[in-house]
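Re: [ENG-882] Designed sequences occasionally contain unexpected residues at chain ends

Forwarding the minimal case from QA. Structure tokens:
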């Protein structure tokens, strides 16, 4: 480990994250740990609970449609679907509480300093990366993104999902306990909750999942057909240096690169992970196709209602 530290300090002078330099800085069988097991499990339960909430909630919103009635029968009726929906909602709320506790831990550890490099707070570089990416979409040439620990699209998803989950939890609680809600607020607030709960779920499903999240997690050339980082927890150091140059250079400069390095997984474990990865990829594609068809149906339904 002493030789590693020496090489890392020598690397700080060049700050050029090339594969050759990476191999000189760290052992070949080490990889960058991007997400902790806690973060990965929370993501997994959010993914599962969100999917169940959509499949059990949307038939209630369009209960007069034939496909919704068929799905209700498949789920065992409206009462059974409601129980499943509430159970998935409890899982989602538990994940929210876990993330709030995780945020509180960060605030305590950093003494309230939760912005700056390597955080989820948007920075000027995020705007520059986004402008460069959109320019590429219009044929202006592919940009060399200078990504930190979190990219601009990950920050957008995080804050959009955080705001959406808070709204869904608040409006869902009002609908779950309507009598208590109307004791505290006027009755019109319950109508507001119903409209915003279903509308917010439709927005989250259509924009965040079908378009934004699916593109960045599955269709980007660097990760197609799926970004495995969230499920594996990390990625090879050379890929990390190329994909997140700002964080890599900062850690080399500060001498903290070893803090995020873990031994590479064994071949047997990688086989299991690859099996799970392809299973999840297949399931995700099926869900995405179903959600996409539903979004198209909703759009045509709205257009036809005018």
């Amino acid at each position: 480990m002493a030789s590693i530290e020496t090489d890392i300090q020598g690397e700080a002078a060049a700050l050029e994250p090339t594969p050759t330099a990476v191999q000189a800085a760290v052992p070949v069988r080490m990889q960058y740990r991007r997400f902790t097991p806690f973060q990965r499990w929370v993501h997994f339960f959010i993914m599962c609970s969100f999917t169940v909430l959509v499949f059990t909630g949307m038939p209630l919103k369009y209960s007069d449609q034939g496909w919704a009635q068929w799905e209700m029968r498949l789920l065992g009726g409206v009462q059974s679907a409601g129980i499943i929906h509430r159970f998935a909602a409890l899982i989602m709320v538990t994940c929210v509480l876990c993330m709030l506790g995780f945020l509180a831990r960060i605030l305590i550890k950093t003494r309230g300093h939760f912005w700056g490099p390597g955080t989820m707070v948007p920075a000027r570089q995020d705007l520059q990366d986004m402008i460069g990416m959109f320019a590429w979409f219009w044929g202006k040439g592919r940009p060399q993104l200078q990504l930190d620990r979190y990219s601009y699209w990950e920050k957008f998803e995080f804050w959009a999902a955080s705001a959406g989950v808070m709204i869904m939890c608040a409006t869902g609680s009002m609908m779950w306990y309507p009598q208590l809600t109307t004791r505290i607020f006027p009755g019109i607030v319950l109508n507001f909750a119903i409209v915003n709960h279903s509308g917010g779920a439709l927005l989250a499903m259509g924009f965040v999942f079908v378009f934004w999240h699916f593109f960045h997690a599955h269709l980007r050339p660097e990760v197609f057909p799926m970004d495995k980082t969230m499920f594996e927890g990390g990625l090879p150091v050379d890929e990390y240096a190329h994909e997140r140059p700002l964080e890599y250079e900062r850690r080399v400069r500060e001498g903290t690169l070893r803090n995020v390095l873990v031994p590479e997984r064994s071949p047997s474990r990688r086989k299991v992970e690859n099996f799970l990865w392809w299973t999840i990829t297949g399931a995700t594609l099926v869900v995405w196709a179903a959600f996409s068809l539903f979004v198209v149906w909703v759009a045509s339904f709205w257009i036809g209602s005018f």
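QA comment: On inspection the terminal residues look reasonable. The CA atoms of residues 195 and 238 lie 48 Å apart. Proposing we downgrade this to a documentation issue.
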